[in-house]
Amino acid sequence: MPGRVSVIIPAHDEAAVIGRVLRALVASDADERLEIVVVANGCTDDTARVAAAASPRVTVVDIPTPSKIAALNAGDAAATAFPRAYLDADITVTAEAICAVADRLGADGPPYGGAPRLIIDTDGASLPVRLYYRVWELTEYRRRGMIGSGIYVVSAAGRARWGLFPDVIADDLYAQRIFEPHERLVADDQFFRMRAPLTFRSFLRRQTRIVAGNHEFADQFPELDHEGGVRSTSVLVGRVARRPLLWPAGLVYLVANVVPRFRAARLRARGVGQSWNRDQTSRDAVAEPDAV
Fold it and tell me: 10 Å Cβ neighbour count for 157?
């Protein structure tokens, strides 16, 4: 019989959305396979209270430091089961999807890490944001073992690849690249949803943080920074070039890549660091009335 699966959710000021994701997990977990650990970190709102009120099955760890990495490590210390899933507080996913991925991981060998298929919810987003994601769906990154963007599940053998989470912005990228492409899986018959930023301005701010995090990752772990590159870009250009209806979206995609790179480089030159990557517009869109 399939065993328990630990779920760790770092949450910094997520009172508006944490109750929704927790109630969805508990309601869809008929066999009570999930051990759910929420790590409220450096919160100035009622995240811990809302999480504890969502279900008696939720364990809440409250730490004073506003740090996703500290929260991930604290969650690991509190969790007891493997496989282990790491979730962002603002996604929508069911227990069935998490368990389905967990059950497909190898006990001692590959695949070591996996995720459900990501669906970007662009409902209510501005036209430029929607156009960007039309092209993004064609990228090699999207099509090739993409785990980590909102959720990743690792086996005990996979989690043994590293000790404490390193102090980087892109923890999800680290958890993806610690495994070779053939050691990852994406369960195409399972899915989770992530809301897109509603405005192009907020989207560009988020992308700037992502680019900065990717640069930091490449600096600290050059041995893991070996995917993508010129070939992936040329493949994407070819795919868009063959679809004239996508050319306007292609221009938006170009802007959405160039501007954040320029901004991240400028911040890098000034020695300005980046913090936890989040977008408030997508959270405001799904905020629960009693939590704001």
Answer: 16
* CA angle, residues 246, 284, 65, in degrees to nearest 5: 110
CA distance to 96, 139, 145, 235, per residue, from 238 (Å):
37, 11, 21, 5
- Candidates 174, 169, 115; CA nearest to 144 is 115
Task: Name the residue ranges covered by the structural domains of the chain.
Answer: 82-284
Query: What value, to the nearest 5°, has the Cα angle with vertex 112 and ends 136 and 165?
Result: 80
Closest alpha carbon to 6 in 50, 61, 53, 45: 61
Backbone angles phi, psi at 81, to 5 degrees: -120, 160
Q: Each residue of 156-167: pLDDT tens digit?
A: 999 999 999 999
First to last CA, the chain: 41
Residue 87: half-sphere exposure toward Cβ, Cα within 13 Å:
32
Round to whole Å and give the CA distance between 62 and 39.
6
Q: What is the pLDDT of residues 2-54, one digit of tens each?
A: 899 999 999 999 999 999 999 999 999 999 999 999 999 999 999 999 999 99
Q: Please give the structure tokens belonging to residue 247.
A: 């050319």
Dihedral of alpha carbons 58, 41, 43, 125, sign: negative
Spatial distance between the Cα atoms of 201 and 48, rounded to a whole number of angstroms: 30
- Residues 150, 54, 72, 182, CA torsion sign: negative
Give the residue carrying structure tokens 């070819």. 238
In the chain, the amino acid numbered 291 is A
